Structure formats: structure tokens, C-alpha cells
């Protein structure tokens, strides 16, 4: 098949098998499916190997959420356009998605009507946001995210991974095993974040992260 006639290559990331199966049926006629991932770590590995044109990813995934996975891919220079498919109608999550360069933000209940349109818009270099959320100005959301960032802390990729796993209720030992680091190193990352934010407990740290859209649960 010539490059001009090649189907755009996509990968899908969602931790619900039934969602992945439904997306395959919805998209297989128009796009080449290069693989699926069930968590953010798998998404990183798959994107690095497959180099897709578009990634369709859930915001809320275990081990590493979709937004932080997208941030990591951007930092690594992977240029795939990213369309988020999510249950979150909250503009906080939308603003975080836009901050990491999202080309689309589609609510799951509208996927059958909007997802193909969003992917095609992404391939044209455009941005698609579900109509339910279009009352929120993209520029205003990005400005608000930047303002929040000035009063927050800049997290390293490792700190973001630790924070997501803490939000999932995992212990320092479990997090260390997943990330290949010691439990003591996990605790060091946790207490550094708590100290920088002026927080006293792990619960406060997780609550802060959820409130500011830094993790998804």
C-alpha cells in the first residue's frame, strides 16, 4: 500500500477490556490498529515501539494515568497526536490534557458519534473537544493551568509516577516493585513532595493531587 493510501496508524489505551473491544469495532474500518495497552506504562512501551500517528487514551488508567503518560511521550519527542477518551467532564482534567498537548478530548458516552471525527481532526493538525465542554475557552483553561502551576510544584517524571501509584492505594513496597526502585526511595519522593507543598500526611498529598488534576483515580 502506498503512503498516500495507508490507513493512519493508531494505538488504544484503556484499562477496561470491553471498552477496547468496542473501540476496535468502531475504528478498524478506517484506521490501522497497531496495538492496545491497559495501563499507562504499557502505553509508553507501545508508543515507543509502534510510533503511531494517533494515540487514543483514557485519562484514568492504573500505574500511570493517561495525562502523565502523554507528558512523558512529549518529553521524549514522540510526535503522535493524542486524543483522550474519558468519563471526566471536569474542566480541570480538560485543562491538564490541553497542557500536555492533547489534540482531542472526547467523553466516553459520545464516543460512537465523536471519536472518529476527533481522530480525523487530530490528523489534520486540529483540536476537537466534545461539545459538552466547549463552553470552556481553550486559552482561558491553559492560562488557568499556568497560573496554578506558579503556585504549585514542578514534579519530576518519577515523582508523578509515585504520586499516581499512591493515589491508587499502593504501599511504598508495592510502588518500589513496580518502578524498580527501593521502598526507601519511594518514601523520599513522597516526603519531598509533601514538604514542598506544606502537607503533613499521604492522604493530604493524594487529595491535593486529585483536586488539581495531577492524578486520576
CATH architecture of the largest domain: 3-Layer(aba) Sandwich
Q: Which range does the strand content fall in? A: 5-15%
Poorly predicted runs of 5 or more residues = none
Mean pLDDT: 86
Assign the structural class, choosing from mainly alpha, mainly beta, alpha/beta, alpha+beta, or little secondary structure.
alpha/beta
CATH class of the largest domain: Alpha Beta
Q: Number of domains in the coordinates?
A: 2
The number of E-state strands comes to 6
CATH topology of the largest domain: Rossmann fold
Compute the gyration radius: what is it? 17 Å
Amount of helix = 40-55%
**What string gives the helices and strands in order?**
EHEHEHEHEHEHHHHH
Describe the strand arrangement of the main beta sheet, using strand numbers. Answer: 2-1-3-4-5-6
CATH superfamily membership of the largest domain = Response regulator
Number of helices: 10
Kindly report how far apart the N and C termini lie.
42 Å
Amino acid at each position: 500500500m502506498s503512503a498516500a493510501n495507508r490507513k493512519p496508524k493508531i494505538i488504544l489505551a484503556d484499562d477496561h477490556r470491553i471498552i477496547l473491544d468496542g473501540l476496535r469495532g468502531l475504528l478498524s474500518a478506517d484506521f490501522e490498529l497497531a496495538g492496545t495497552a491497559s495501563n499507562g506504562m504499557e502505553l509508553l512501551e507501545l508508543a515507543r515501539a509502534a510510533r503511531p500517528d494517533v494515540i487514543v487514551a483514557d485519562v484514568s488508567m492504573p500505574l500511570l494515568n493517561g495525562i502523565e503518560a502523554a507528558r512523558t511521550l512529549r518529553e521524549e519527542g514522540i510526535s503522535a497526536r493524542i486524543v483522550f477518551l474519558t468519563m471526566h467532564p471536569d474542566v480541570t482534567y480538560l485543562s491538564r490534557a490541553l497542557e500536555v498537548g492533547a489534540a482531542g478530548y472526547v467523553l466516553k458516552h459520545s464516543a460512537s458519534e465523536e471519536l472518529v471525527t476527533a481522530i480525523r481532526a487530530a490528523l489534520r493538525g486540529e483540536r476537537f473537544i466534545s461539545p459538552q465542554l466547549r463552553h470552556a475557552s481553550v486559552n482561558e483553561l491553559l492560562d488557568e493551568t499556568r497560573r496554578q502551576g506558579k503556585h504549585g510544584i514542578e514534579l519530576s517524571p518519577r515523582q508523578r509516577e509515585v504520586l499516581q501509584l499512591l493515589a491508587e492505594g499502593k504501599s511504598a513496597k508495592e510502588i518500589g516493585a513496580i518502578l524498580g526502585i527501593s521502598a526507601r526511595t519511594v518514601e523520599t519522593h513522597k516526603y519531598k513532595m509533601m514538604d514542598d507543598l506544606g502537607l503533613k500526611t499521604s492522604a493530604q498529598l493524594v487529595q491535593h493531587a486529585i483536586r488539581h488534576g495531577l492524578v486520576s483515580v
